[in-house]
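Dear support,

We are seeing what looks like truncated structure output for some complexes. This example has four components. We would appreciate it if you could run it in full and send us the complete token output so we can diff it against ours.
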Amino acid sequence: MRPTLTDVARLAGVSVATASRALSNPDLVADSTRRAVRDAASSCGYKINLVARSLRIQRTDTIMVLAPHIDDAFYPAILASIEETAMALGYAVMVGFTAKSEKHRAAYAELLFNGRVDGMLVMDGGTGVDRFSGPKPELPVVQLFDRIYDSGVPTVGVDDRVVADLAVRHLAGNGHRRIGHIAGPAAIWRLAERRRGFVEAMERLGLHADSGQIAACDGSWESAAQAMTQLLAHPQPPTAVFCATDTMASAALAVCRQHGLAVPRDMALIGADGTVDAARSYPALPTVHVPRAEIGGRATEMLIGLIRGHGGLAGDTILPVELLPRGNPAPKHAAAAA
Amino acid sequence: MRPTLTDVARLAGVSVATASRALSNPDLVADSTRRAVRDAASSCGYKINLVARSLRIQRTDTIMVLAPHIDDAFYPAILASIEETAMALGYAVMVGFTAKSEKHRAAYAELLFNGRVDGMLVMDGGTGVDRFSGPKPELPVVQLFDRIYDSGVPTVGVDDRVVADLAVRHLAGNGHRRIGHIAGPAAIWRLAERRRGFVEAMERLGLHADSGQIAACDGSWESAAQAMTQLLAHPQPPTAVFCATDTMASAALAVCRQHGLAVPRDMALIGADGTVDAARSYPALPTVHVPRAEIGGRATEMLIGLIRGHGGLAGDTILPVELLPRGNPAPKHAAAAA
DNA sequence: CTGAAAGCGCTTACAG
DNA sequence: CTGAAAGCGCTTACAG
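Here is the complete output from our reference environment:
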């Protein structure tokens, strides 16, 4: 059998209370006692049972992360920074991927309600789940990027209309006037924001956002490629396209190649997020960088702050985004178009 | 306060024992009792406390996954299939990324020893960690891809020498004789295997594996790009390169472009793993497909089988790999070289 | 079919 | 500085 604290106490000749203190709160016991208990613990290979500890102290030091999926260029970096921050603060991380079904999400939410985790980070707004079923969680929750809850749940993210604005202004600044957009599904809040931001930015510039120049996709590479194909089939195709994500931009680039269009000479593209999909494309594509790692870290700090009762930390946090131009020269007929 | 089983029992007018049975083991109580307890539970918003349950039944229904990192094209799909399989079998998943430091790995191993998880999936052989510090874990562990333990710990993976063999034979079959290799770090077991497999395959084909035609990198895209640059600087550069991973192949492709080399006309490339890095390159690169999702699923089933005491399931599992040629024509001077 | 009791392995007031 | 006792919230033999 695995040794318990009782075994250690017996070996060291002290009470379990003292053994517990010697191990978890060393300052409370005499030097000699501490040594004796530690020796006893290591001699019998004692390992604390954290489940028992959790039950007693009423916390698990574990947080849950909900993401729609993990298999793309966007989410992994965020999960990595969440994990790193959590570990630095003494928390373990459980993950749940919820794109598969509503049932998955409900099952994971249960873990929060069932006391297995102390709080939850949600970044699965993109699954079209609008809110938890049942009562609003009383337990700490922080959402990333997408506003899943109406209010009361702090968000860490960026202003996605600004993302779109920077992208559109970059293209317009290079002389483009017929600018298209590959949009994500309306169910993904941040991508819907980018679409709205695209239309607003075009209007501010006095450019018409022709709905025929906006093609929606489900966010996947393959689906974005179809959207680009659709844009190119337009009688007057755009000379530049703002793709809602770098992954979509990378797909659009592939389609341009198939059509014999050189990028950016024949078609200018810009993505968003700042993932490797933009950086490793050839040519590297301009993008609007979203500080995903920082968002993950901040959200984790905020969540743990809430768990620990530092409510003061809570509140929406909007981090700045940045245009990474990577040189996207003017369109062929920029002079004429301008 | 959160209602406990005691509250439910009182509301329903039964003992806590009966309340527990009604909720967790409904067959053991009378219909009317079951209904009364369920009504009581829902009326007060009772949620079971899984921590207390875990302490009592001595299992957590949670597994731990150790990966070096998550931010690439290789690991996410595996984690996704692990999570999916685990959830289907009623297990939650905790993650730990261990590339940062030995301390991280030790901290996560503690969770296993400390009873917070029932078993562990390790796929962080690539961090150069050779084994757990301390005694070999008595708890269920299954390793993926890399052999971290000498023995006694089952592995689910592929034969990486076969991976290399398929790749080399593909290139040789297209007439190449001067074949180079971009190798991963020796610390990553499976990449070291691929390197050994490369040398063996070359010998079997009567081709010389010139050590000057092998360039090692740390596995990152950037580092692989340097390795390719190095190969091209060779007085007699290879006409084809087997890159140990698709990510490396994608980096090699970028370098070829910089050097004005058309792929595959001027330089044939093949990667391995079968990730999007190969499929979304332009041109799409040939690769040797490693069934990562299936490996994740199988390993998870095996681990949970071990946890549940079905020891019979354990044992190494080697899954087949498959060449995805995607057309890689002969080198320019194939006739002369052959 | 149901209840009283023990116990999973810890921590922490309370008293000394 | 240390110990006896209570208790975190469940489950499960045991007895009826």
